[in-house]
Amino acid sequence: MTVDGKRGRRRRPRESGARQPIREVDYHNLRNPFVPTPVFSEDRVESIHDTALRVLEELGMKVLLPAAREHYRRGGALVEDDTAMVRIGRDLVESALASAPRSIALRAGARERDLTLELGALVIQSGAGAPHVTDLRRGRRPASLADYEELTRLTQRFDVLQMLNPLVEPQDIAPPFRHYAVTRAQLTLSDKFPFLFARGTPQVHDGFEMIRAFRGLSEEDFVGAPHCYTIVNTNSPRQLDVPMARGLIDFARAGQLSIVTPFCLMGAMAPVTVAGALTLSHAEALAAITLTQLVNPGAPVCYGAFSSNVDMRSGAPAFGTPEQVKANLGAGQLARKLGLPWRCAAGCAANVNDAQAANETQMSAWGAVLAGATVLIHGAGWIEGGLTVSYEKLITDLEVMQCFAELCAETPAADADIAFEALAEVPPGGHFFAAAHTMERYRSAFYEPLVADWSNFGTWTERGARDANVRASALCEDLLADAEAPAFDEERAAALDAFVARRTAEGGAPPES
Amino acid sequence: MTVDGKRGRRRRPRESGARQPIREVDYHNLRNPFVPTPVFSEDRVESIHDTALRVLEELGMKVLLPAAREHYRRGGALVEDDTAMVRIGRDLVESALASAPRSIALRAGARERDLTLELGALVIQSGAGAPHVTDLRRGRRPASLADYEELTRLTQRFDVLQMLNPLVEPQDIAPPFRHYAVTRAQLTLSDKFPFLFARGTPQVHDGFEMIRAFRGLSEEDFVGAPHCYTIVNTNSPRQLDVPMARGLIDFARAGQLSIVTPFCLMGAMAPVTVAGALTLSHAEALAAITLTQLVNPGAPVCYGAFSSNVDMRSGAPAFGTPEQVKANLGAGQLARKLGLPWRCAAGCAANVNDAQAANETQMSAWGAVLAGATVLIHGAGWIEGGLTVSYEKLITDLEVMQCFAELCAETPAADADIAFEALAEVPPGGHFFAAAHTMERYRSAFYEPLVADWSNFGTWTERGARDANVRASALCEDLLADAEAPAFDEERAAALDAFVARRTAEGGAPPES
Q1: pLDDT digits (tens, 9 = 90+) for B449-468
Q2: A418 in contact with B, Cβ within 8 Å
Q3: B18 touches chain A (CB under 8 A)
Q4: Closest to B453 measured CA to CA, from B380, B382, B395
């Protein structure tokens, strides 16, 4: 857990001459090129929104944290402390939606990593929150800090993953100390925008303090812009538990970003219909967004939705289904109605990185992209409905995410690209390999695959008939052998370590529930 | 090769009670629900179209068949017989585009299998044209008639595959007789719209005669509507060979459908840019469409495009790339400019049905769907860039195609679907499994997966840890054990067999080249 001085001194290296990529790409500031696809008529979107407001007004949310109920009460909601029910009038919700920012500038560890969340932007994240991890070499196992660190280094390595996230839960670190380890790993292994779990005020404040220490920020600097984020899941249906409500308050008060994501599985904790599940999800998201704005009007907050269906025979969650795609598209309509940046998700229920796994993640990711999601979560590596992150799937999914990023780029169609001269140069039945037009462009014309192997069957067989998983496994090992952390200031790293050492000696901060 | 009388007598069975699906689906008349996505501005689409016309006028096409050159000449094109070059004025192309039908009603073996090809429709086909076949049990091998028959029976089984196609090339049947075997298999194993290869007039006329005999059609009935189709590939760049030109003429004259598909690999037989490859592809398609309309104004013809890129290091074709998606989207813009129904393709260069294979086919299929393709070819089963059809990939890709079909259906959002009452019924933190709203709908609410396994890791492991390929292989065997052919008239089948026996005795019809 001590900072490696040598690593601190080195700059983030450029790739060496031999490995110089011939094609430069920038997957950082992506704008979604697709026309958002609706699944509901405009009047039905109005009906869903209106019904969600009616749910909050007439049925209410159960809010387990007394301090959160007090915020709602002071804002004008009807609160019953004995049942913990909070009925929120539409005026409160509308005033919260008026103060929630439409565009949120995120401050990462380096300016070229900063992001702006707003409708039209496309930010991609890997899979998150898994207790287990798997790879071909080491098998499926409870995730450890070493796994978390490796996956964070891989995240740093891929421009298309623009934010950090809690890929796996390091189960070898006791809960009161785990947040020190994961926050430290994010700060020292990456300069991307970091994530903190909302597991009670002591842990959250520890995280804020670590970021301030490591980034060299005054209290004022820190609250002036979002330097980290958390994800708030409601306990669907219609319940907001203690740590989640606490997180909304703590992050809003400190000007840090909450991404509100009800997880509404159709037929389980939500109605069996896409429209019904989205009505519930929308109501819960509005309730949580309202709390952030009651605490601190203008506090950065993202709308979010994560709805898929269950297998009605077993109750098992399913992902990558047509129903998830439709829910994503419908959630996009609701987000556009609000005008807020929003988070949507891919997903995969397969138990291994096979064709099912690939198809489910890509299908649901298309749903998110066509829905106009600002942040696409679980885009790479997520299997077993989020119980496991697979190293190999991280890589094979990243190929898909990089394809999305490529699709965000303009397709050149100047006269020179339309290429009448080249067409005149090559005779009927000839080929363009040696045409001047080709020679000028071939080095950078095409996306270069990460893990796809386009060799023919004979060559592929001679080379060992390695499938995508075998190749992805080897690529992970190469990347991990190679990857270096960004440079950082040793004094700040020392301050970080001193803070962690002191807090560890004090017994850490047990998570709240 | 004789008709099984028993099979002829049986009706196509409904599934037995025990296997009764609880959810009825109809994937037959699909309308594409997605807003077509452009990659070029309107003025660039005009420029590509205009440059394609200039290519035909100034550079011309090499047309190897003298009879085809004669049609062009009589239409007013400038023809040089010594070089076989044909320069086609834009007036000829424009007049062909004016007579080509915007909507084409296809006549299958049963009315419920008929199709209409027009912009807005979505018709899906499996992979086609592979010399090899592979499955887990029998391995990779040259395709045989038995494989072709099995794959045709599988095609019949899935509503989402709405047309027949030449999945694999039965290499155990000599070329002069192969068309008898494949046409007979299509007619007797399926009632879907059949395909004939354009390999010279004798084979084409044999095919027409077999369809007339088996369907009980007069010559007049037959020419009155398309009862079969062929696919015409140009020899890019700018060349139309003898059998392809002959096919265009023979099919147009008989009122049968040609789908024109230049195969323009960027950087190989086409310019390295998406815009340049599409310009060439568009020019070649216009030349072929023009020939059909010169032969028979109003003859059914589809526009088509199939452009992807090569790996510039090895020259190997790549599929499922961002460039293929962009080419698909651009081709859609050109097709909409013409107003014609059109064919687009998915693709996959992987050598085995792994995550790469799944990702490539799905990525390119989304390109075709978002491009507004009328016919999506190679949607299921295609690997190795079309050199092999995989039984297992046929199944895993069909899951994706069925998801597309599900996305074509409306998403219910009546007040009852928005479900305020259900939301009121279930308390905070409760669940909807037993809600009245759920009970009324759960049997039919969700897509039922074909091959996806949503069980958790423990259950999946206990059941043998079968990946998608193992499950797909077992499903193929079950379906083939189970599948029965549609009913047909024994007299017509006898007439078909008599025709084939006579033609076989006469030596068949060698393909022309």
Answers
A1: 999 999 999 999 999 999 99
A2: yes
A3: no
A4: B395
